[in-house]
Amino acid sequence: MGPDDLQTSRLSRAFRDFLPLPAKLEPHLKEALGRVLDNPGSLIRPEIVLQIGLDYGVLENTVLDLAIGLEYFHTASLLFDDLPAMDDAVERRGMPCVHVEFGDAGAILAALALVNRAYALVWRAVANTNHIDHARALTYLEQHLGVDGLLNGQSLDLHFASRKTDCKAAAIGKTVSLIRLTLVLPAMLGGASVLELQLLERISLFWGLSYQIVDDLKDVLQSSSESGKTPSRDLFLGRPNFALAVGIKGAVERLQRLITLGDRMLDRLTLLRPGLTCLRHLRSELGEEAVELTQFACEPVAGGVA
Fold first, then answer.
1. What's the rounded Cα separation, in Å, for the pair 59 and 55?
2. pTM of the model
3. pLDDT digits over 144-178, tens only?
4. Is the pLDDT of residue 300 over 60?
């Protein structure tokens, strides 16, 4: 087992163990939460949080609290997103959605348990970091999870068909907000400079929109066996989707531009902070996934996206 496998295994254990389930917990909720905690997904976000935080000198236990807390927020957002009142999905990560097996109430309570624990973990991480403005860090968290960020993006997504807002606005709220927390908050806890934070903000925007386009293309192009979740929901529900809005070729071209812009920002950042070359791994995975996803759908864009 290599270093990457060991880190993934460690993060997987932390994801399961950082939300202890008491013996007296109601069995139905306990089973629903156990199912969520035993299926953490790729864990790429906590891996990046851990790498950035450690590079900036944040204590390992502190940055691990932050990494798992942010991943709990992300996982809770998926549980809410899959509900019949939202996307009405039936499959996630190759398995039945939590609400399919445990009912809407079970999924909602499991998501709220994750949110509650996530706040406790992030607050503990912030409190254990002495040289930063605690209020600023917590305000940043609230901004990107609350009515200025994730919640607004989800509402824009739900009401897109009636209001016909820009796909970009919903993506910035839903997807970019969580990417910003992943990249910026651990650097903020480590005392990153204003310029470094600005570059991380820009990378978050470009990569967040890129991930949304990739997800939109998956919704249009892939089956559930390929993507691991319910396909074609955007078209059926009238939700924002870059591939539906500008066509597959247009979405691929936009994806290329965004990745190129992100590369430029990452080049500038790694000149200031060579330790953050670890982010090139995340960028490489994004490019490879984009190529694999689109190569059969249209002619490659000049220069490619790898």
1. 10
2. 0.90
3. 999 999 999 999 888 887 766 678 888 999 999 99
4. no
Nearest to 192 by CA among 112, 285, 107, 269: 269
- In this structure, what is the dihedral angle of CA atoms 222, 210, 126, 20, given to the nearest 10 degrees? 0
176-199 tens-digit pLDDT: 999 999 999 999 999 999 999 999
CA triple 14-20-21, angle to 5 deg = 140
Nearest of 6, 5, 76 to residue 37 by alpha carbon: 76
Interval 57-84: pLDDT, tens: 999 999 999 999 999 999 999 999 999 9
Q: Which phi and psi angles does 187 have, rounded to 5°?
A: -70, -35
Helix, coil or strand: residue 295: coil
Q: Are 55 and 279 in contact (CB under 8 A)?
A: no
Q: Hey, is 204 helix, strand or coil?
A: helix
Phi and psi dihedrals of 91, rounded to 5? -140, 140
| Amino acid residing at 284 | S
Residue 248 CB coordination number (10 Å): 18
Count how many Cα atoms sit within 13 Å of the Cα of residue 241 in the half-sphere of its side chain.
21
For the chain, domains (ranges, CATH) are 3-294 (1.10.600.10)
CA distance 273 to 199: 11
Name the β-bridge partners of 96: 91
How many CB atoms are closer than 10 A to CB 117? 19
